[in-house]
Amino acid sequence: MNLNELSILSLYSAMGVYAFSFIAFSIDLARRSSAVDAAQCQAPLVAESHRSTAAGAGGGTTTLTRISARIAYDAATPYSHSASLRVGVSLIVLAWALHLAATVLRGIAANRVPWANMYEFAMMGTLLIVAVFLIVLTRADLRFLGTFVTGLVLILLGVAVLRFYVEVAPLPPALQSVWLVIHVFVASLGTGFFALGFALSTVQLVQFRQESLLTDAMEVRLRFLATLPSAATLENLAYRVNIIGFILWTFTLMAGSIWAERAWGRYWGWDTKEVWTFIIWVVYAGYIHARATRGWRGSRSAWLAIVGFAAVLFNFGVVNVFFKGLHSYSGL
Amino acid sequence: MNDRVGPTVSRPYDHHDSRVAASGDRITEPPLDFIGWLRWFWRQLTSMRTALLLLLLLAMAAVPGSLVPQRTADPNGVTQYFADNPDLASALDKVQAFDVYSSVWFSAIYLLLFVSLIGCVIPRTRHHLRALRAKPPKTPARLGRLAGFTTRDAPAGTDAAAAIDSARSLLRFGGYRVALFESGSEVSISAERGFLRESGNLLFHLALIGILIVGGFGSGFGFSGQRVLVEGQTFVNTLLAYDSFKPGRFFDEERLDPYTLALDSFDVEYETLNLKAYGQPVDYTAGVTVAVQGKTARTDEVKVNAPLRVAGTDVFLLGNGYAPTITVRDPKGNIAFTDSVPFLPQDANLTSLGVVKVPDGLAQQLGLTGFFYPTQAKAQSGAYFSSFPDLEYPMLTLNVYAGGLGLDAGVPASVYALNTDKMTQLTGGDTGTKSLELKPGQTQELPNGLGTVTFENADSGATDGDFSGSVLRFASFDVNNDPAQGWVLLFSVLALLGLLTSLFVPRRRIWVKAIRRENGSVCLEYAGLARGDDPALEAAVFTLAKRHNAVLAPTPPSTQTTEPI
To answer: Which end of chain B offers a freer environment for a tag, N or C, measured as fewer CB atoms within 10 Å?
Structure first.
């Protein structure tokens, strides 16, 4: 068995473990709903007190200094102890280690950085999505996003192994540059942050709707949402994650221009991939401005973050494969 | 939030940090005169909502340019599009769909965006410069509703003024600007920090304007030219020597430095060990000799990601292929044509297509179209193809046309295309005569006794069966000069720095208030206000309160923490 076969084996194992992690996180979401039911029997007014806290965003207490603590506090129904949640996290860490091994082995097998075609972009990009998620977990309790992250990564890896797989090949002259290492890596890292920002913005929208329903004393479904942070907290978190993504994307754009100048003799030429990288940059710039525009905070800006990530996925999955342009390195 | 402190008038009226106009304003607005309308228009144009709308419009307007081929990025694609969908193409052309990024509508959006940006940035810069010298604003009467509000009882015997004085030193040490306020029984300190946040924001936006101006106008002084060189050929950097040349708007021919560039060799390395990537190119190296006027010639090389910088221009290696040397003689053996003709690669194994035109020296004008296969192989259908990009078993096939080449009309014609309208095909196709097939060094008779054609072997001393040097290669070079790109890079770096500071430096105000009670004890209040996103504000207030108390009571204190209201 050569190194590439070992890499594939490791990747399949990682996908298996991600799947189990997905199941554990799903069970956790189901348990959250029953936890909310139980809590509501004891204290029917929890939701009421919760809304007043969420509205008075300025009101702090001396004990709450860490973001994670604030999130736990912010949720209508406090919820943190769950066996399935712990299992989910352990499994995603294990799967990530296997995923990392697969990526490193592919790099050693190819004797270069393992991001030079669609298969490798997908493998490395999803690795970074999970890495960003795990790093953010150490700062804030976003474990409720476990189903989203493992689900997204499973789908992308599934497409990668079924549709994008190519054999190990040396770098064509056009990719033999130090900028391949920098430009592509930073772009993938930015994608990791945008993915997380997308998830937070989506939950924010759902949560906002739930809060409106509660205000109007309407019947609610998706009861587990009560264990999640308030829409306002989710919006702030999404913003912080997305601005890191935006800075990385700005750098991607600049590094790409420098590389384009060295390889093609011009720093900007409206190549299809350049166009889409620009569109994504402008959409997220719009998102940041929307957050500072009266009437656009909250749900409207969240929609922009969602459109932005949709454009990121489009840029990766459609522009790379189907559009004609200079960035035709999909290897397909 | 109406209780925001300090002037924010410089921001667009609909910035979420600006004061909300009193609701009565709208109703009592007097009828607008012309100046009034201009004012209103300017206010709208420089509002956040307009900027946002223009940003989203810009993103949407950029999309069509990725769906339809663009003249600048893909001119052949545009030609093909016109051939495939003539009606649709001419309709699209009317709305400038093939020149999206220089179109009227795209330009209108980004120019409006930049006018809006300038209209927003200038007053903000003015305001920011003033704010840099201003004193922190007066302490609000009630701190209770502000972020991180904390109250503590000062250790017994603490003097209010002294307590505030120590808080002042702590805040100044932490980079805050401070101002002292006193009223009745209260002494307070107002502190502010993070002006770098707004500085970064302004720097970012100013740098974007810089990129637009420098990139838009600066590049007009440069040029971009293309030239194909066969191994052994030399090029002089003058206008006439280029195959194609695109000057900038303000380009001056005088600025071309007439250096010479000779292509001595072109080396290609193909993957042969990894069978799954067999034949994939691994390296292209163009060995060149450069001679700048007044300097001794030097040898150098150009690679794909390593351009050659010479005399203010950058030479890029963009393409390459084979240039078979073909000689045509009349029946008496006089040479009518001899040259190395670049054949354009059609696939990864360099099956290449080329054209030879022989206008003089024969009984009729002659045109040859041919395929060159570096390693010729035969498909089951009998068609030839190339199975490897290097010269293992080279073969040239030629179809012969005789008649009028159409060169005398004075209409410019591509050297890579043959117009056969007024020509008769003599070999290949339906003529019943086989196409001419030549290996390096071979000569064949032309039909109708027109003469002979020879595929010259470039490496005449090679042993039998060794074709590795039998055909010359060509390289196509891009020679570029863009005097503005260094400036664009500078502004981009400034933009990135501005972005980093504007998003990560927290701008905040902190207040510490000491209130003397009737009984002589002192109560301390701490609170903060974020100006923009500031996740660490509350923590900063708590830390300050803790450290301040530690300073006031060096010995373990009996302080009591009160929960907020």
So the answer is: C
Looking at the fold, whether B70 and B16 belong to one and the same domain comes out as no
E strand or H helix at B79, and its extent?
Answer: helix B75-84
CA distance B90 to chain A (A): 21
Q: In the predicted model, is pLDDT for residue A46 greater than 50?
A: no
Q: Which residues of B316-354 are buried (b: 16+ CB within 10 A; e: fewer)?
A: bbbbbbbbbbbebbbeeeeebbeebbbbbbeeebbbbeb
Contacts of B261 (CB under 8 A, 6+ apart): B229, B234, B235, B237, B288, B289, B290, B310, B315, B477
pLDDT recorded at residue B563: 46
Structure tokens that stand for B39 in this block: 């004012």
**Are B306 and B230 contained in the same domain?**
yes
Angle ∠(B143,B148,B154) on CA atoms, nearest 5 = 70
Beta strands across the sheet bearing B325-329: B335-340, B325-329, B452-455, B443-445
If we measure between CA atoms, which residue out of A243, A233, A251 comes closest to residue A187?
A: A251
Provide the pLDDT for residue B98. 94
Q: What is the CATH classification number for the domain harbouring B163?
A: 3.30.160.110
Q: What is the pLDDT of residues B206-257, one digit of tens each?
A: 999 999 999 888 778 889 999 999 999 999 999 889 988 988 888 888 888 8
Read out DSSP for B65-78? HHHS--TTT-HHHH
Query: Could you tell me if B316 and B379 lie in one domain?
Result: no
Three-state SS letters, A162-210: HHHCCCCCCCCHHHCCHHHHHHHHHHHHHHHHHHHHHHHHHHHHHHHHH
CA–CA min distance B281, chain A (Å): 6
Same domain, B523 and B431: no
To the nearest whole percent, how much of chain B has pLDDT over 90?
Answer: 51
Closest by CA to B167, choosing from B514, B435, B466, is B514
- Which of B94, B110, B130 delimits the end of a domain? B130
Residue A107: half-sphere exposure toward Cβ, Cα within 13 Å: 14
Range of the structural domain that residue B3 is part of: 1-28
Query: CA of A301: which chain B residue's CA is closest?
Result: B52
Give the list of residues 6+ apart from residue B130 with CB closer than 8 angstroms, or none: none
Bridge partners of B326, per DSSP, are B339, B455
Write the Ramachandran bin of B312: left for phi over 0, alpha for psi from -120 to 50, otherwise beta: left
Cα–Cα distances in angstroms (integers) from residue A125 to residues A114, A159, A171, A187, B372, in the given order: 11, 13, 19, 9, 42
Specify whether B340 is located in the same domain as B362. yes
Would you state the pLDDT for residue A310? 97
Instruction: List b or e across B144-177, with b for residues whose CB sees 16 or more CB atoms inside 10 angstroms.
Output: eebbbbbbbbbbeebebeebbeebbebbeeeebb
pLDDT of residue A47: 43
Residues of A in contact with B58 (CB under 8 A): 282
Domain match, B548 and B515 both: yes
At B175, is the secondary structure helix, strand, or coil?
coil
Taking contacts as CB-CB distances below 8 angstroms, the residues of chain B near A168 are 274, 276-277
pLDDT at A52 over 80: no
Domain count, chain B: 5
Residues B537, B148 contacting (CB under 8 angstroms): yes
Which of helix, strand or coil describes residue B452?
Answer: strand
CA neighbor of A171 nearest in space, from A103, A120, A233: A120
Residues of chain B neighbouring A296 (CB-CB closer than 8 A) = 48-49, 52
On whether both B142 and B125 belong to a single domain, the answer is: no
How many Å apart are CA B480 and CA A203, to the nearest integer?
50
- To the nearest whole Å, the CA of A18 is away from the closest chain B CA by 31
Map B366-401 to HEC letters: EEEEEEEECEEEECCCCCEEECCCCCCECEEEEEEE
Is residue B125 domain-shared with residue B62, that is, in the same domain?
yes
Residue B356 within any structural domain of the chain: yes
